[in-house]
């Protein structure tokens, strides 16, 4: 049987339990063989984080140590320039072959900004999209993105039946945690414990991260 692979890209600045539960639940809901987490080297649509991509990747490595169905994929660190998702999907497709379903997972908030992504309409030539409903965010109801969604939307469980070309929308119980909130807590001298894996919090303390970030 052809494997189906989920892909969750992000700055992971830092990785937290919201990301991890979402990746795990998406993988289990669609019976994916694995979900890869891909740290972004140089985000095209936001300021480059103060914490380096190497450190953000190290935190991911620590977070994923006990979960074999979630896998680190650090390919974006090996490309210079902005980390375009389109290039990442092309590189995965070249490596994994034409038949494997590739499912790029993104929160509703990220989907709403999709028109700013480099070559966004082309993404479906290389993989599927799985949009996860996130508290406080609604899917677009008008405009090019809304039209594109209604043209390509299928039931999420249909995504694993083909390699690319469709969009699924999946409601999951999501934890209301954001990396922004974690950075603010640390900067204010508060503890983010229980919002992220203990090993990641330890790494942040050992390396004195986020104390000086805005
Ligand atoms: P920031 O607060 O710095 O913007 P973030 O917590 O939203 O960060 P990102 O690394 O930007 O995290 O997000 C990576 C992906 O994870 C995006 O698709 C985003 O929608 C999703 N995501 C972020 N937080 C959660 C959460 N609590 N539950 C589910 N998905 C999330």
From TrEMBL:
Catalytic reaction equation(s): nicotinate beta-D-ribonucleotide + ATP + H(+) = deamido-NAD(+) + diphosphate
Signal sequence residues: none
Keyword Nucleotide-binding attributed: yes
GO terms of biological process kind: NAD+ biosynthetic process
InterPro entries registered for this protein in UniProt: Cyt_trans-like (IPR004821), NadD/NMNAT (IPR005248), Rossmann-like_a/b/a_fold (IPR014729)
Keywords, sorted A to Z: ATP-binding, NAD, Nucleotide-binding, Nucleotidyltransferase, Pyridine nucleotide biosynthesis, Transferase
Superkingdom of origin organism: Bacteria
MF term (GO), any: nicotinate-nucleotide adenylyltransferase activity
Protein's pathway: Cofactor biosynthesis; NAD(+) biosynthesis; deamido-NAD(+) from nicotinate D-ribonucleotide: step 1/1
Enzyme class name: transferase
Keyword Oxidoreductase: no
Cytidyltransferase-like domain: residues covered: 7-183
EC code(s) of this entry: 2.7.7.18
Similarity comment: family membership: Belongs to the NadD family.
PANTHER family: NICOTINATE-NUCLEOTIDE ADENYLYLTRANSFERASE-RELATED (PTHR39321), PHOSPHOPANTETHEINE ADENYLYLTRANSFERASE (PTHR39321:SF3)
Function: Catalyzes the reversible adenylation of nicotinate mononucleotide (NaMN) to nicotinic acid adenine dinucleotide (NaAD).
Full protein name: Probable nicotinate-nucleotide adenylyltransferase
Lineage: Bacteria, Pseudomonadati, Pseudomonadota, Gammaproteobacteria, Cellvibrionales
